[in-house]
Amino acid sequence: MPQPASTPPRPAPARDGTTSWLSITLLGVLLLMLLAILLVLSHPQHAREYKLYLSEQRPGVTFQLDELSPTWTEADLRARFADLDWRCYDNRPGEYLDDRSCFADVQSFNGHGAMGLSFYFKAGRLNQAVVNVPWWSHWSALRGLEAQYGPPLASQWLPRAGVRLHGWQLANGGGVFFNRDLPLNPLEWNAIFWRSARECALRPCFVDGPRRQGTPVPAAPDPTN
User: For residue 139, is it left (φ>0), alpha (ψ between -120 and 50) or beta?
Assistant: First the structure.
């Protein structure tokens, strides 16, 4: 009895290159979304600050850092920046810097992006200040500092407390510092840090040594807490 002829195997469907690239793209988008969710969950306060910064109408400020003076009182600060909404608090021991802190939200500083100002008082007089800079304004902030004060007097080659800093010494003996590098976490920000001549006399802002590395300064505090 004759055997029925076997059915030849069907050829495998040809792989569509467009479909393959679409699958890779979708997978990449899903991974980026997952990473973004993990960053927000692990840094909720930073995510909140960026959301507020991008959604609120805030004033810009323009001033030179060497305008700041260790003779300023809180009243002087409020008079100089009368259009800003200041929030001032007495610091608990170990909280922030110095004895008293004043914070204000801003949109820009000297023409580049800035999220907020922090001013710190010791014994009623201005001692230190911070300008928080969103990561995308890092290079414009650095160019602005170099245009005003020239190349950094000192730059850290190795990180201290996780950051490397540029430093400029002011004519009045104070110091200005800024991060050398962009933050690895896009929800973090960099900071321009001003230290008074009085504080630099107590804790030297610069030391002589190989490559004239700047001494570490405290990590810029988070003005949103």
Answer: alpha
